[in-house]
């Protein structure tokens, strides 16, 4: 069987959840190539990716080849021609038995057997959370996604919550849907671009805390700054927490790139930090940090707080659990599926619940230890090898029809 995979999303981590698509594509391919010694793989990249990068991804797998789409100049000049005509011809000439589109997007004129992954349907369910620039893409998605859903032989989603959302929008595709959760790298071997954190000793980094102006006790959020992440409410809950002198030394670290509609977040941050020097500010916005630093920060946090209003999966919560860090997250969308009983679930629309959960973890060391260990055990159930095995079976099913 010849399997084609659209790898172009690995290059474009700039749009919040799209960064998640690139992460998913990268680790899925890595584990498919480790697992599958039988089938051929054709990996489609933009020419900007670079042959050396592609070679590092493919590794020593003799039955995998990289193909570089050469018409990058048309991406902005003639986007429809680029995405739906040139891409179709470029991919079709490989005569793959099945093509996987990890971002859920098939070229409009593509007709061969295909599998798509739909990570979430946030823009369909809550368009008010997104800026006008997204609506430009959304208008085309309202045409392209229904067509991709219709043409795809199988549809992969990462959670039962996303499957339920998909069935509401497209009731006729229920039989095509397969729920395959994402994986997480084990806490003892955290792999990331540019390095490896491979031992518990390397997880101890007081110099890292000094670098980011954090004390010994801090709470951590990781995610793109956008409305659905509910960060403004988190900051308000944290501000209420610090009224109690017991928590005056606790800080909140926010890690993540600026997405859109983040003005309220910085208003709340300014109110909370009023009168404090940058180094002493209770809320530290760290922006984007290298993956290695992110995992170190997760490991040393008193708790990981993820009060999102909607997630297709919720990988940051799972990553924190894999590091043995207790998690507070929302009891909505996919998050209860990921966390199970290994974390504290809160109503994201009730700031007092967020505050009380933070207070509980900061004052109850026994609970912190219990949830940290439970989270680590739960995270061990989510492996990229399982994801790859189940996805490979989907490829076989799609190619047979």
Describe what this molecule looks like in 3D.
43% of the residues lie in helices and 16% in strands. The protein has 401 residues and is an alpha/beta fold. About 5% of the residues have low confidence. The protein has a 7-stranded parallel sheet, with helices on both faces. The chain has 2 domains: 199 residues, Rossmann fold (3-Layer(aba) Sandwich), CATH 3.40.50; 190 residues, Glycogen Phosphorylase B (Rossmann fold, 3-Layer(aba) Sandwich). Helix 10 links the parallel strand 11 and strand 12. The protein is elongated and about 65 Å long. The longest helix has 20 residues.
Write down the overall geometry: elongated
Measured as a percent range, the helix fraction is: 40-55%
CATH architecture of the largest domain: 3-Layer(aba) Sandwich
Please describe the biggest sheet, giving its number of strands, its sense, and whether it closes into a barrel: 7 strands, parallel
Can you identify the CATH class of the largest domain? Alpha Beta
Number of helices in the DSSP assignment: 16
End-to-end distance: 13 Å
Strand content: 15-25%
Order of strands, main sheet, comes to 3-2-1-4-5-6-7
Instruction: Assign the CATH superfamily of the largest domain.
Output: Glycogen Phosphorylase B
Q: Compute the average pLDDT.
A: 88
Topology, element by element:
Layout: E1 2-6, H1 17-35, E2 40-46, H2 51-58, E3 64-69, H3 74-77, H4 79-92, E4 98-101, E5 114-117, H5 122-125, H6 132-151, E6 154-157, H7 160-169, E7 177-179, E8 190-192, E9 195-197, H8 206-211, E10 218-222, H9 231-241, E11 251-255, H10 263-272, E12 283-287, H11 291-300, E13 303-306, H12 315-322, E14 327-330, H13 335-339, E15 344-346, H14 351-363, H15 365-379, H16 384-400
Parallel strand pairs: 1-2, 1-4, 2-3, 4-5, 5-6, 6-7, 10-11, 10-13, 11-12, 13-14, 14-15
Antiparallel strand pairs: 8-9
Helix pairs in contact: 1-16, 9-10, 9-14, 12-15
């Amino acid at each position: 069987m010849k399997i084609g995979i659209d790898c172009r999303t690995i290059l474009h981590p700039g749009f919040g959840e799209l960064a998640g698509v690139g992460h998913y594509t990268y680790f899925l391919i890595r584990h498919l190539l480790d697992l599958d010694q039988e089938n051929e793989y054709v990996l489609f990249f933009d020419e900007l990716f670079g042959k050396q990068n592609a070679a590092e991804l493919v590794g020593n797998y003799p039955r995998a080849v990289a193909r570089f789409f050469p018409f990058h100049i048309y991406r902005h000049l003639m986007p429809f021609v680029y995405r739906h005509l040139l891409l179709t011809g470029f991919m079709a000439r490989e005569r793959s038995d099945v093509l996987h589109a990890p971002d859920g997007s098939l070229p409009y004129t593509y007709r061969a057997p295909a599998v798509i992954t739909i990570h979430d349907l946030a823009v369909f369910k809550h368009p008010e959370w997104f800026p006008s620039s997204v609506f430009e893409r959304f208008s085309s998605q309202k045409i392209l996604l229904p067509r991709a859903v219709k043409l795809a032989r199988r549809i992969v989603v990462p959670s039962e919550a996303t499957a339920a959302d998909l069935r509401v929008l497209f009731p006729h595709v229920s039989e095509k849907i397969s729920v395959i959760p994402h994986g997480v790298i084990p806490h003892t071997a955290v792999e990331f671009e540019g390095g490896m954190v491979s031992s518990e000793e390397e997880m101890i980094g007081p110099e890292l805390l000094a670098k980011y102006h954090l004390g010994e006790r801090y709470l951590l959020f990781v995610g793109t700054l956008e409305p659905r992440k509910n960060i403004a409410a988190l900051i308000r809950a944290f501000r209420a927490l610090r009224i109690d002198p017991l928590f005056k030394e606790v800080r909140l670290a926010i890690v993540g790139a600026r997405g859109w509609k983040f003005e309220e977040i910085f208003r709340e941050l300014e109110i909370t930090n009023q009168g404090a020097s940058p180094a002493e500010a209770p809320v530290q916005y760290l922006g984007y940090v290298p993956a290695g630093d992110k995992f170190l920060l997760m490991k040393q946090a008193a708790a990981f707080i993820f009060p999102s209003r909607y997630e297709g999966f919720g990988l940051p919560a799972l990553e924190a659990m894999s590091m043995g860090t207790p998690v507070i997250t929302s009891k909505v969308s996919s998050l209860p599926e990921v966390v199970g009983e290994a974390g504290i679930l809160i109503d994201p629309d009730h700031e007092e619940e967020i505050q009380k959960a933070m207070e509980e973890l900061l004052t109850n060391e026994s609970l912190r230890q219990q949830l940290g260990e439970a989270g680590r055990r739960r995270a061990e159930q989510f492996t990229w090898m399982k994801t790859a095995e189940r996805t490979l079976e989907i490829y076989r099913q799609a190619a047979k029809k």
